[in-house]
Amino acid sequence: MIQTLNNLIAQAQVLVVAGIGLMAIVFVGVVWARTKSAVPTVGAVVLGAVVVWGVSNINFVQQKVDQDIRDAGALAPIEQVDPTGGVEVMGV
User: Fold this and answer.
1) Which of 27, 45, 55, 73 is the most exposed place for a label (fewest CB within 10 A)?
2) What is the pLDDT of residues 30-77, one digit of tens each?
3) At what angle do helices 38-56 and 2-35 cross, to 10 degrees?
4) How confident is the model at residue 82 (pLDDT cuts 50, 70, 90)?
């Protein structure tokens, strides 16, 4: 049962990536049809490629975001509130 669900999830992931790729192609076509200009069309191609890459490599992106959050948390100063109303910053 678990193996079957894993296979269905893997197939759904492939289908989602293919759908996003198709939407990127349609997006580029719509941009070209509306503007008839190379600059916006190249921008649409680049944006579509970035989105398809991000969807295809979601694990890589998630690991980088987690690492950035952990790094930012480790560098954040610790504030300790003084009962007299002042704030003392520690760890700077």
Assistant:
1) 73
2) 999 999 999 999 999 999 999 999 888 888 878 888 888 888 766 656
3) 170
4) low
CA distance 54 to 61: 7
The residue assigned the tokens 């520690």 is: 90
List the one residue out of 41, 61, 65, 50 whose CA is nearest residue 20: 50
Question: Which amino acid makes up residue 83?
Answer: P
Those residues with Cβ within 8 angstroms of residue 90's Cβ, 6 or more apart along the chain or in another chain: 77, 78, 79, 80
Q: CA 61 → CA 22, 41, 47, distances in Å?
A: 21, 26, 16
**What pTM did the predictor assign?**
0.62
Q: Are strands 78-81 and 87-90 parallel, antiparallel or unpaired?
A: antiparallel
